[in-house]
Design a protein that fits this description.
heterodimer, A: alpha/beta, Rossmann fold, 7 helices, globular, B: alpha+beta, 2 domains, two-stranded antiparallel ribbon, 13 helices, rod-shaped
């Protein structure tokens, strides 16, 4: 039986009077691909930010990888993120003045020591061996997202978070990115939390939870054919 | 690539990406540091130049013996004050000057009356080498005297119908027979005097080692003239130490005022430059808030992210300082050539001043933006809020 990587109890996030995430009890086993679905404003990004140590809950408990995130200082959370989490954003958020390989090396810099050979290798794994020296402005949306994936996996995270990573991609690119993530997960054995509102993307996961108005309303487990 | 090299690489890339803004910041920093450098060099050159100008005016301090004064009168009547000739011991004055550590050109004088052609004339004993240094404006027709020679004041020579080459016999104490080697014109009281070598006059008047006046040319700047006079006065209680020229004091005062003006102009420019740097850096941070949020989301601590921006400010400061020192030196040369008709000294340690000013402005102007970087919430900044 696999161990638990995420465990929440009564996890709540309020922004003033607005309750973005209502008390949530959730357990995610290590290595699972969990998809979080819901409409805009349903609390799925809030959940992802809390789990990734980017935000702090208003109430409840949150343990990720056996660590109590509420006990961390702000810089402690930053260290947790670089050691434990890789994030893929919908809008890529690549640094415009750095090349593809340098964008990957930036994640290495914050983690430990930049290693160009490793960064090149990561980009080759995502099929961008020929685009190493290109800047984000010179890459297509799908290519930028693959740089983002290489950057997210370069430090061998235990937890990969995807905030609508295919939201800006066409169908072909979406399939390409999802297949890439599936391959990488099989090799690296990381846990995936994928926030999306795309039912097709949800189909790639092991389990899907549905949030509505900050509340967990439904849960579906993928039935293997 | 190690972390330090990567940081430098990152900083260079970031600055190169925003060329326009980087050049603007560099221009502001270079302008401020070049102004500080230029005004510093000009100020230093000006001080030196004023000191040289003051030298041309000759002695600015005199020391003379405090005469024994005696009020003459009876009852309600007062017939005035009489004073006996008084002298200073040359060796005592020399000792006092050594103790005072005063940097000055000195000339010792002894004045006395001697007979010449049945008339009494005033004769002054001097060291002619000192006279040449202290009174460069004296106009001499003929030559400075050698042993057994004298120079005579213009007016006295006319009155006594004497000319260069004449032999004069001076009587009073011991007799002196001297050849006139030149006629001096100073436009002052010296035109009515006859000048002889100090030891010869001391011997003639039986006043060995005695002097009646000391003239000093203290270089203006540093210790003020007034302080110098006061210090000397304490060491020579039997003498009176007096400033004889206002020129030096005026020059010192003017120099101080010009320096203050330059300091104020520099301060205003530095404040303006600091504001400009702060404004530009704030805009840059605002524009790069997503980038900062991303760095934090990837695991950069607040200090690590701030270090990148500090690195940018530091590099800008160093480059601004180099440009500022070069431009400042050129500007200083131009100003000193135009105003003083002289070239300014290249003062290497002003590079340090330039670096200090440029770095101070770059870092001070970055304080506000750095605080923003420090506080920036990664989630909100990635959302573009």
């Amino acid at each position: 039986m696999s161990s638990i990587i995420i465990e929440t109890s009564g996890l709540t996030r309020n922004y003033g009077d607005i309750c973005a995430l209502k008390p949530l009890d959730l357990v995610v086993p290590e290595g699972e691909w969990l998809t979080v679905m819901g409409h805009s404003g349903s609390g799925k990004s809030t959940f992802m930010n809390l789990v990734g140590g980017l935000d702090r809950p208003s109430a409840g408990s949150l343990r990720v990888g056996g660590k109590d995130l509420l006990a961390f200082t702000e810089d402690g959370l930053a260290r947790f993120r670089r050691e434990f989490v890789g994030i893929i954003f919908q809008q890529h958020h690549l640094v415009p003045y750095l090349t593809a390989v340098e964008n990957v090396m930036l994640a290495q810099y914050f983690h430990s020591v930049p290693d160009e050979a490793e960064a090149r290798s990561a980009l080759e794994r995502v099929g961008l061996g020929h685009r190493l020296k290109n800047r984000p402005g010179e890459l297509s949306g799908g290519e930028q997202q693959r740089v983002c994936i290489a950057r997210a996996i370069i430090n061998s995270p235990k937890l990969l978070l995807g905030d609508e990573p295919t939201g800006n991609l066409d169908h072909k690119s979406t399939v390409m990115v999802m297949e890439l993530l599936k391959e990488l997960r099989a090799e690296e054995k990381f846990t995936v939390i994928m926030v999306t509102h795309n039912q097709e993307v949800a189909g790639w996961g092991d389990r899907t939870i549905y949030l509505d108005d900050g509340m967990l309303v439904r849960e579906e487990r993928k039935v293997e054919a | 690539m190690n972390r330090r090299r990567w940081l430098i690489h990152l900083v260079l890339r970031a600055l190169a990406y925003r060329k326009g803004r980087t050049l603007l910041l560099l221009a502001v920093l270079a302008m401020a540091s070049s102004l500080a450098t230029a005004l510093g060099i000009v100020s230093s050159s000006m001080e030196k130049r004023v000191a040289e100008e003051v030298r041309k005016y000759g002695a600015n301090l005199v020391i003379f013996p405090e005469s024994a004064r005696l009020d003459i009168g009876s009852g309600g009547l007062n017939f005035g004050v009489v004073s006996e000739p008084a002298y200073l011991q040359q060796s005592i004055v020399e000792d006092a000057l050594i103790k005072s550590e005063l940097k000055a050109e000195v000339s010792f004088h002894l004045r006395g009356a001697l007979h010449l052609k049945d008339a009494d004339i005033m004769v002054e004993g001097v060291n002619f080498n000192d006279i040449k240094r202290l009174f460069p404006w004296w106009q001499l027709k003929g030559n400075w005297p050698a042993a057994g020679e004298t120079v005579i004041g213009n007016d006295l020579a006319s009155r006594m119908k004497l000319k260069t080459g004449d032999i004069v016999e001076l009587g009073g104490g011991n007799k002196m027979r001297l050849r006139i080697s030149g006629i001096v014109a100073s436009g002052g009281e010296e035109d009515g005097l006859l000048f002889v070598a100090l030891p010869e006059l001391q011997q003639t008047l039986d006043l060995g080692g005695k002097i009646s006046l000391v003239r000093l040319m203290v270089t203006a700047g540093g210790n003020t003239l007034k302080t110098s006079a006061s210090d000397l006065q304490k060491l020579l209680p039997a003498a009176k130490v007096t400033e004889v020229r206002q020129t030096a004091r005026t020059s010192e005062g003017l120099l101080a005022k010009v320096k203050l003006l330059m300091f104020m102009v520099t301060a205003v420019v530095l404040v303006s430059a600091g504001s400009s740097v702060a404004g530009t850096m704030s805009t840059t941070v605002l524009e790069r808030s997503r980038e900062i949020g991303l760095m934090k989301a990837m695991g950069g601590t607040r200090w690590e992210v701030m270090l990148i921006f500090c690195g940018e400010a530091t590099l800008l400061g160093v480059l601004g300082a180099i440009a500022g020192y070069v431009f400042g030196s050129v500007i200083a040369q131009f100003i000193t050539k135009t105003v003083f008709s002289a070239s300014a000294d290249i003062i290497p340690w002003f590079a340090g001043i330039s670096l200090g000013v440029s770095l101070f402005l770059a870092l001070l102007g970055s304080v506000g933006p750095m605080i923003s970087v420090f506080k920036l919430d990664p989630v909100r900044s990635l959302r573009g809020e």
